[in-house]
Amino acid sequence: MTDTSQRVLSLIVNDSSLDPDLRRIAEKVEAGERISFAEGVILYEKAELGYLGVLSNFVREKLHGHKTYFNRNFHIEPTNLCVYDCKFCSYSRLIKQKEEGWELSMNEMLDMVKKYDNEPVTEVHIVGGVLPQYDMKFYSELFSSIKAHRPELHVKALTPVEYHYIFKKAKVDYATGMRLMKEAGLESMPGGGAEIFNPEIREVICKDKCTAEQWLQIHEEWHKLGQRSNATILYGHIEKYWHRVDHMEQLRQLQDKTKGFQAFIPLKFRNQGNQMSNIEEVSVIEDLRNYAISRIYLDNFDHIKAYWAMISRNTAQLSLNFGVDDIDGTLDDTTKIYSMAGAEEQNPAMSTKELVHLIKQAGRHPIERDTLYHVVTDYNDYVFEEVPKPQFYKLPVINAMEVERKENE
Ligand code: SF4
């Protein structure tokens, strides 16, 4: 941690006017002790943004100093048609709305990969809707074809929602299914589909897809193979604070067991174009509180990640002072998931230079990573080559005062 983050935390710990519960939590954070479920709920119910910023920044800087990670990636979204009907989903169209959807063929997806042949991307991120034709055989062939074409491109693909569906259809258990996916070329799993683990909330917002237990079990099987994955939470809709803590508690317990998660990614519920549009979105303050509490609660997760495409560049920049140490990817306008839900970024793409600038402006140290957090380039002292300015013909300058002076001569 930096001296400043330690000093500011000490001020809080020594503040006798502070609520005793919050003071005890601050002491625990300073001592590197784990906070309890009940304390997680107290943070959500009582803690103000400033206090949470101090605690989460202390933890963040203890783990990473000023280092802030990003990667160069692109997305492939095979289809936005889906057999499920999650109420918060702005992205999917039911099969009966086929005319509003897309279904990419194997060749179309491989062409997308080839489009990046001369680009220094390190990862392809594949997620989309669930359809019968995108089965185990299809995805095995897709992964192996991508690896055959570009072996060093990391394949991060599909969530337990898709895996549960395709394994069931193929009549294989989770352990066998994940092993076969790994053999086909899958290298890591993104964190989606987790939503909120509580079954009552799930029953209302996403009752048809895999359960929380199944989601956790599939990650566990994947981790047992020595592989890594991420985890998400969808917050800010009908859940209560304790549901968020319960969600993180289940992740924390699995992480104690497997150590396979890399990053936790809080996903904000956006209310456009879905069946929960009547629910007001939470404020930016609540977004930042949520990042901060995640950082404090999930003491066994290395990284807290913000999707700038979902929360906007400005909030992503702010989040770097509230526990976040990773801002996802250059994206290159290859994802529609956030824009269709009403995110400010309608064509999300950032150049490396822009991402580096965004991180540096926040006083942090930008590092391009690969999917497994190996350093690709350290941009702290990096100077970008100046792009030569366009040349223009020099035009005679008409200076009104000069003309007037000449006329008077
Ligand atoms: S959230 Fe995923 S599983 Fe649910 S409807 Fe949307 S695309 Fe389908």
Automatic annotation (TrEMBL):
Pfam family, one: Radical_SAM
Cofactor note: Binds 1 [4Fe-4S] cluster. The cluster is coordinated with 3 cysteines and an exchangeable S-adenosyl-L-methionine.
Reaction catalysis annotation: 3-[(1-carboxyvinyl)-oxy]benzoate + S-adenosyl-L-methionine + H2O = 6-amino-6-deoxyfutalosine + hydrogencarbonate + L-methionine + H(+)
Enzyme class: transferase
Alphabetical keyword list: 4Fe-4S, Iron, Iron-sulfur, Menaquinone biosynthesis, Metal-binding, S-adenosyl-L-methionine, Transferase
InterPro entries the UniProt entry points to: Aldolase_TIM (IPR013785), CofH/MnqC-like_C (IPR045567), Elp3/MiaA/NifB-like_rSAM (IPR006638), F420 (IPR034405), FO_synthase_su2 (IPR020050), MqnE (IPR022432), rSAM (IPR007197), rSAM_sf (IPR058240)
One GO-annotated biological process of the protein: menaquinone biosynthetic process
A molecular function GO annotation: 4 iron, 4 sulfur cluster binding
UniProt xrefs under PROSITE patterns: RADICAL_SAM
Residues annotated as domain Radical SAM core: 68-302
Names of the cofactor(s): [4Fe-4S] cluster
Pathway: Quinol/quinone metabolism; menaquinone biosynthesis
UniProt EC number: 2.5.1.120
Residues that bind [4Fe-4S] cluster: 82, 86, 89
Binding site for S-adenosyl-L-methionine: 88, 195
Entries under PANTHER family matching the protein: AMINODEOXYFUTALOSINE SYNTHASE, FO SYNTHASE (COFH)
Biological function: Radical SAM enzyme that catalyzes the addition of the adenosyl radical to the double bond of 3-[(1-carboxyvinyl)oxy]benzoate, leading to aminodeoxyfutalosine (AFL), a key intermediate in the formation of menaquinone (MK, vitamin K2) from chorismate.
Protein known as: Aminodeoxyfutalosine synthase
Species of origin: Arcticibacter svalbardensis MN12-7
